[in-house]
Amino acid sequence: xxxxxxxxxxxxxxxxxxxxxxxxxxxxxxxxxxxxxxxxxxxxxxxxxxxxxxxxxxxxxxxxxxxxxxxxxxxxxxxxxxxxxxxxxxxxxxxxxxxxxxxxxxxxxxxxxxxxxxxxxxxxxxxxxxxxxxxxxxxxxxxxxxxxxxxxxxxxxxxxxxxxxxxxxxxxxxxxxxxxxxxxxxxxxxxxxxxxxxxxxxxxxxxxxxxxxxxxxxxxxxxxxxxxxxxxxxxxxxxxxxxxxxxxxxxxxxxxxxxxxxxxxxxxxxxxxxxxxxxxxxxxxxxxxxxxxxxxxxxxxxxxxxxxxxxxxxxxxxxxxxxxxxxxxxxxxxxxxxxxxxxxxxxxxxxxxxxxxxxxx
Length: 361
Ligand code: NAD
Hints:
This protein is α/β, with parallel strands linked by helices. It folds into two domains: 1-103 and 265-361, 3-Layer(aba) Sandwich (Isopropylmalate Dehydrogenase); 128-256, Isopropylmalate Dehydrogenase (3-Layer(aba) Sandwich). Helices cover 40% and strands 20% of the residues. A ten-stranded mixed β-sheet has the order 2-1-3-12-11-4-5-10-8-9, with helices on both faces. The protein starts with a strand and ends with a helix. The mean pLDDT is 95. Nicotinamide-adenine-dinucleotide (NAD) is lined by residues 13, 17, 72-75, 88, 91, 260-261, 277, 280-286, 292-293, 296, 334.
């Protein structure tokens, strides 16, 4: 059956990098992949088109599709808008409406880019971690929240960290399943020594682990996890954690690789439907110049094929094609460091996309 992909370019460099990812998908379609792609505006582009960062038609398209490919949203021109219609609301709306509770953020250091990391090559060479972050619960959504005025006139800000057992169970299953497809090692990150909510998190993770006897489960406090990520990151295979801890740790892990333009992400629902996007933003500083790195978006297509379309072999082929273009010495400006520029060829966004397509075929 034809699989439907909603293509949402968004703002800034979004349309440029999505165009390259679409080239890759078109090339796979020419080779027999049965897909249909439909494009719609989101973020600032959605606001300009309909007054809403998540237009009704875009949401309807996302709901009826098997997977969503998103570029990035945001830009200075929308920063003064009311918070309810800012571009980021488009993204949050999609996550909430589609119940995309499981956020997968790999941190992979390609051997060809070992110099891009600020850490010593022996600490990061061959790094391949998957961070699974709970995305629709926890302190970012907990009620009550706000800023109140106390009896003495002083203001007090407050947020609530809250997780129901069912929310922990479903992210637990998601992480264990991913660990089963990888190195079968899962580290659950919490702060169970201080926060009751994450004491429950640990208890539920242990319970869920009984369904996955092959996976080795360990636990780590978040402060230690942050330290270990920069001290000896290769000890990790898959990490699972709460919304806020995952927000912070996944950015830290991403930066171990030193190249924001290389990292994809996936946000999945309980049935494997997902939204796929690069981890970086809309990069207004380089938008429209054909210099952005499209590889994070192309690698997001690989994740989409693996996790939502059940096309593991095609996913592997895209990842190999990316390795191949790096081996050929092709580099967009962001991954061309002064120390490694010898023998490298600086390429534009579209040249990089063309090279991946050529390497695929
Ligand atoms: P950013 O990720 O857009 O850019 C940070 C830096 O990285 C910039 O110097 C940029 O040029 C560079 N960069 C990012 N992606 C690149 C790529 N593919 N190739 C080469 N260089 C790249 O973060 P920011 O500057 O803090 O935010 C810009 C806008 O993006 C803001 O409006 C922000 O709200 C939005 N944003 C959106 C998302 C998203 O859509 N998921 C995520 C983060 C930020």
